[in-house]
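--- STAGE predict ---
source: upstream dedup step, 1 unique chain passed
mode: sequence only
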Amino acid sequence: MNTRTPRLLVGVDGTEGSVEALRWAAHEAARRRCPLHVLTCAELPVAVEAGLIGSGALGGNAVADIVAEHEAANQRAVTLARSFGLDLEVTGETVLGAAAYALVSAAHAEDIVVVGATAHPGRLTDVLGSVATVVAHRAHCPVVVVHGSPRRDGAVRRIAVGVDGSPGGEAALAWATEEAIRCDAELLLVHGWVYPYHGTRSGSKDARDDMRLDAMRMLEGCTQRARELAPAVRCHSLICEQSPATAVLDAAKDADLVVVGSRGHGGFTSLLLGSVSRTVLQHSPVPAVVVRHD
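--- STAGE serialize ---
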């Protein structure tokens, strides 16, 4: 039997964005009554990582200095998290390697990974994707990308969740509903649809009206499931004839947290070229959660 305690794992690199992620993660860990683990990754220069030059070519104890610098940043983050007064178990760790893959390797399915939206910007970002994007598409647990929050206490009063009837959307709905119970927050189910709507009667004379009805029925079914899971949660729904990502981002403007599934009705091409989850991660004005469905 697996008795491992779930934990929140937050990536911290000393930037302002990672400090915001740390603050949000600490409050979420307190809500869940689980440990907070602060992970800092010391990355060597690309040429050293590739073996093109030896670490000694950096001069003196340069590699040791890089590690020591990140260890100091990690300890400062741990101290900061403990200063929030949340009665929280906080541990820290510094590892050598690329941040995204270190976070993915350290996380287990029952954990939650939290990263800042601006973690390690720049190097190879346009080619390989940001740390947040890589973690969100590779981690086998929910991933939270923190863009900053107007609430310094980390409170969550309104959660917007994108639903589309897919397995990924169902996983996001279940996670968001559970979080709404935990936070005593209201839940807004958002469904954006565009013509032609997937899997409907495209050959009908009144195809657009039929598709709109199908979209409304799908959203009604999701709303009913949310109310069955959490009868006490204040639950609302919103349907928009626009792209799913745009609908979710518009709803996020009045929310404290937005939740989406990692895969929807976009197929493999959508996953590679810019899925709903990736668009929401990049542009959400509030912390965004991607719930993976395998």
